[in-house]
Amino acid sequence: MIECPVWGPIGPKDLSGGTKTLILMYKDKKHIFNATNCGDNCAKWILKIAEKQDLTICLQHNMDFGEDDFEAVMLNDNRHSYNMRELLDAVFDLESE
Q1: pTM for the structure as a whole
Q2: Which residues contact 16 (CB under 8 A, 6 or more apart)?
Q3: Domain total of the chain
């Protein structure tokens, strides 16, 4: 059980898929995580986790990582992106191939 000061105890079955995925990302440094289960509200937490450790995710939708700079490497073609614009350019280049 997770003790929440607002809603009281919350069981693991009641957590969203995004929350469960974020917990796994934070705790397990060895796996590839399906971030497709996560909504845009998880993006800032994915970036915070990635600041502390390397993180490999599979993402099958365009998640909004916001306006701040970040570093991402697309494993499909080893392309580096340093902000949301570059990430979207890389995604759309891959989709057009």
Answers
A1: 0.84
A2: none
A3: 1
Residue 3 belongs to some domain of the structure: no
The two tokens of residue 73 are 């490497």
pLDDT, averaged across the chain: 91
Which pairing describes strands 32-34 and 8-10: parallel, antiparallel, or unpaired? unpaired
Q: Please state whether 66 falls in left (phi above 0), alpha (psi between -120 and 50) or beta.
A: left
Q: 50: alpha, beta or left, given left = phi > 0 and alpha = psi -120 to 50? A: alpha
Domain span holding position 68: 17-96
Q: Which stretches of 30-75 are DSSP H helices?
A: 43-52
- Which tokens go with 42? 């998880």
Q: Which two tokens stand for residue 39?
A: 């909504």
Dig out the tokens for 20 from the structure. 């469960």
